[in-house]
Every structure is written in structure tokens, then in C-alpha cells.
Specification:
single chain; mainly beta; SH3 type barrels; two-stranded antiparallel ribbon; 10 strands; about 0% helix; binds zinc ion
Length: about 110
Amino acid sequence: MAGAGYKLKKGDEVQVVSGKEKGKRGNILQVISGKDRVLIEKVNVVKRHMRQNAQDGGGIIEKEAPVHISNVSYYCSKCEGPVRVIHKRLENGKKVRSCSKCAEILDK
Ligand SMILES: [Zn+2]
């Protein structure tokens, strides 16, 4: 099932925990389901040559490249660091994500 089981989703603040972008932080722009990759704002930025067109005349643009989901962790603002996300069921039956360290509920 594509996209099922990811603990991270669009808009989450994450920190890169391995690879050449290690230590960088940003918000998830997109989860690429089926590929286990995420696009993170201002992380793993690469330069791309644009083909010339009538609108902007082409040139070089900077664009985020996908990062493997195993290289990033949720950034908990309470713990001030990367944490593991666990699933938790509330008393009302609602399933939410929570920080494994401080138990803060991440889905409001
Ligand atoms: Zn926490």
C-alpha cells in the first residue's frame, strides 16, 4: 500500500540525522509515497538548469531534492531535538502521533 505507515507527513518539522545534510532542519513539503522519500524545505537544495522559455528566459534555479525518509527524524520543539514518533490512541478513540521522549501529542 503506497503511503501507508509513514510516521511523517507534510508540514512536519524534521531534522536530517544522517547523510551529507545531517543536522539541517525544515518542514516537509511533500511525502513521496512509494519511494520512501520526502522533500524538505531548504534541505538538500540542488541547482537545476531550466530550459529556456518565453516566461522567464530560463537559467539556473535552486530546488529541493528528495531525502530518504530513513535519514530524517521528527523534530520535537519540546525536546529540542530529533525524536522517534509513536502512535497512540486517545481516550476518545482517536489515533494520534506522539513524541516517544516527552509524550507530547504531535497531531492536534
Ligand atoms: Zn518531545
